[in-house]
Amino acid sequence: MATAVVSSTLSVPNRDSVASEPPVPPREVVARDKPNDSGGSILVSWERSADDGGGRESVTEYRIFRSTPGGTFESIGSARKGVEEFADVQTIDGTEYLYVVRAFDGVSLSPPSTSEVVVSSAQWFHTGRTNILVGGVVLSFFVLWFIRKAKRGEELYIRPIAGLEAVDEAVGRATEMGRPIMYIPGIMDMDNIQTIASMVILGRVARKAAEYETPLLVPTSRSIVMSAAQETVKEAYLDAGRPDAYDSDKIMYLTDDQFGYAAGVDGLMLREKPATIFYMGCFYAESLILAETGHSTGAIQIAGTAMPSQLPFFVTACDYTLIGEELFAASAYLSKEPLLLGSLKGQDWGKAIFIALLVGGIVLVSLGFTRIIEWLATG
Amino acid sequence: MQRQIPLVITFLAGTVMIMQYFIPHWPFSALQQLFNRWYLVIAVFAMILGIGNLVKVHWQRLYRRKSGWWYSVVLLLALGVMGIAGIGGGIERGTFFYYLYWNMYIPMSSTMFALLAFFVASASYRAFRARTTEASLLLGAAILVMLGRVPLGNYLWDKFPLVGEWIMDYPNMAGQRAIMIGIALGVVSTSLRIILGIERTYLAGK
Amino acid sequence: MSETVGIWIAALLTLGIFSFLYKDNPLYKFCEHLFVGISLGYYIAYYYHNGVIPKLYFPLVRQHNYFYIIPAFLGFLYFSRFVRKYAYLSRWPMAFVLGAGSGLSVPAIIQARIIRQMQGTMIDTITFSSIVMVVGVLATLSYFFFSREHKGFLKIASGMGIVYIMVGFGATFGYTVMARVSLLIGRAQFLLKDWLGIID
User: Domain for residue C100, yes or no?
Assistant: First the structure.
């Protein structure tokens, strides 16, 4: 352990400190590199001074000093009494440091307690997140395994989902009544998975609308979503063999503002009087405003969202609601494409494993093996 | 070839973003912030397109004197005045922009939000005529929780708040948990399909 | 003076939006178009001052951080859709947003919605409530099994799952009702107190 000169960069108050002795120093000062970070940080910990929470109870705070081996110590911060840790977030990776912690009682500092030499560094893997990596890998394995199996022509079953069974009927209804279909893709942007799922479903709905030559209105709340929707619908019309029937003006941007969008869509609903309304994607409080207005026009409404807080409102106001995961199953369901059905089966296995782990975990925990809960906690 | 490049971009972007969650070392540590910045820039460009679309639609309505064209005038004027006032004059307190914000935007926004009270009432009224067992369950739970949160409920029976809370904390929590787990599985599966290019209808057709 | 004018404007617009409840009428149509225009104008100004200037203009033009050319270029590609020959390029920025967005959500959602939920459901004490909870999670999960026909045991389990789901929805519904009503009270207070001065 290198000895270093402790420079008094602090002025000790000019009081009669001869009579009072300095507090007992903290013990076991340990300095280590902060784990699982991008570097530049060292954690200093110590055991409380005997005069903190015991003894003379004179300690008010701890002062932390840092130096390089052979250099002078500088104060870098303090910690309140009772605290036994300090994070130095301004280290340079690769440089050696020494730390000293001294207890302070308002008058004088305790003798120093010094740490070993330590170096900070960045880690390449976040060990606290191993459980997520494991979970992700297992899940991905199952999804990809069943996708592969489906590629080889294996028949995959999918249980009926009422909301999706009704899509054909809903589109047909609009065609018969000579009124348009309205598709509302939620109010979040393209980086949100629900919106992405919504675009995929839009493609399928647009395909049917193109085949029946029913007008399709898509008011969007985000410009990127507007572009994506236009691309999707255009491709769908192309696939259906009706490229000339595509009207890009029917896919419009209104405003990014949540309630401005709701006001605009409400007005659109009352004026265009769609026979069928789809709500697919990520919604917030405006969900009920839209759904109730849609209901008042007499349209048949099919909703799907993975926002648990909005599901109750869609359920009460719409004819059919896709609950959470069913939204993500829609694309597989509507296309019946084997690859997509395969991924659904992988998801099911994910649920099965979750159930098995849960039941197993509960059994273990009730028998006293609480380690498993710790492993689930993430750093 | 031109269909392949977007898929490659998606694959690279997706893989790198997944990796950054597990690798604290630079440059991965800076990636999430980088994405947020880049995304903002891209969104601004996209917004120009979006505004262009809105203006075009309403300008055409105005130009061709389609029914209700005067409302389009209102919209375009409001957009222009607000946007220019904000960009040119600043958006702090005391500016003209702020005056419009405070006396027009805020009242209309709050009122839209407040409309929900009426809509909740009309939705509840419909739910009262519950015809299926599921609807009755929903209604029953709603009533119990509501009574638990209102002074009237407490007055009728002092155990209502506890009942309401218990329903929120146990059966409700259980259902929500399972729904969330299902959603997570769906998200992972969909993301995998997007990143690996298995799901591509929106991007490259078919 | 301008404050009184302001309050009157606010009050009339409030009533205009409320008139929607009656039926579609010219006042509401006016308010609706005004609102869409104003809200978009607001966002434009907001993104300009909080987005474009500090996060694009400053780094690129003032600090000469040319790295920002990449997202600016990607964004610019959106405009390629107007030129038929290069229209396919407009897919690139979309591909980036989609890929990065998907990638970011995967680990985060595994942590928050799977691991954390498992943690919360691993009960350590057996009470009536905790059994209700665990049974609920298992039953509701079984409702979401897609690749199997819901027959026999699975049918019973998923039937129970629907019960839990509906009870949960009802609870959420009842819980938010009060919050919505208080919003209405807030607006009513504005109209009666700030505008008309009927109540204090």
Answer: no
> Cβ neighbours of residue B49 under 8 Å, at least 6 residues apart?
A223, A226, A227, A253, C78, C79
pLDDT per residue as tens digits for the range B135-182: 888 888 988 888 888 887 777 888 888 888 898 899 999 999 999 999
> Fold for domain A159-335?
Rossmann fold (3.40.50)
Residue C43 CA to residue C39 CA, distance in Å, equals: 6
DSSP A112-145: PEE---EE----SS-GGGHHHHHHHHHHHHHHHH
Q: Determine contact: C1 vs chain B, CB below 8 A.
A: no
Neighbours of B152 (CB within 10 A): 10
Among C19, C104, C146, most A C-beta atoms within 10 A, so best to mutate, is C146
Residue B182 CA: distances (Å) to CA of A221, A326, A344, B85, C169: 27, 9, 11, 47, 16
Q: Is B12 helix (H, G, I), strand (E, B) or coil?
A: helix
- The CATH class of the A27-119 domain is mainly beta
Q: In chain A, what are the domain boundaries? A: 27-119, 159-335
Domain that holds residue C141: 123-200
* Cis bond upstream, residue A160 (ω within 30): no
Give chain C's radius of gyration (CA, Å). Answer: 27
Q: How many CA atoms lie within 13 A of A356 on its CB side?
A: 6
Q: Structure tokens of A167?
A: 């899509």
Among B108, B166, B179, beta carbon nearest to C140? B179
According to DSSP, the β-strands at A276-282 and A181-186 are: parallel
* Total tally of structural domains belonging to chain C: 1
Let me know: does A91 contact A122? Beta carbons within 8 Å. no
The answer to whether C152 faces chain B, any CB pair under 8 Å, is no
Residues of A in contact with B198 (CB under 8 A): 147, 339-340, 343
Pair C91, B202: CB distance under 8 Å: no
Q: How many angstroms separate the CA atoms of A212 and A226, rounded?
A: 23
Q: Report helix, strand or coil for A65.
A: strand
Q: What angle do CA A227, A261, B183 make, to 5 degrees?
A: 70
pLDDT tens, position by position, for chain A (379 residues)?
444 445 445 555 555 444 478 888 888 899 999 888 888 889 999 988 888 888 888 888 899 999 988 888 899 998 888 888 999 988 888 889 999 999 888 888 888 888 888 888 888 888 888 888 888 898 889 888 888 888 887 778 888 898 899 999 999 999 999 999 999 999 999 989 999 999 999 999 999 999 999 999 999 999 999 999 998 999 899 989 998 889 988 999 999 999 999 999 999 999 999 999 999 999 999 999 999 999 999 999 999 999 999 999 999 899 999 999 999 999 888 888 888 888 888 889 988 988 888 888 888 877 777 777 777 765 4
Cβ-based contacts of B139 with chain C (< 8 Å): 170
In a domain, C21, yes or no: no
Helix boundaries (H) for chain A: 130-151, 162-177, 193-212, 223-239, 258-272, 286-296, 311-317, 325-335, 338-366, 371-376
- The label of the residue with tokens 């992972």 reads B188
Q: Which amino acid is at B164?
A: G
Contacts of A197 in chain B (CB under 8 A): 186, 190
Contact A37 B22 (CB under 8 A): no
Residue C33 lies in a domain: no
Residues of A in contact with B119 (CB under 8 A): 288-289, 292
- Mean pLDDT throughout B85-111? 89
Amino acid in position A70: G
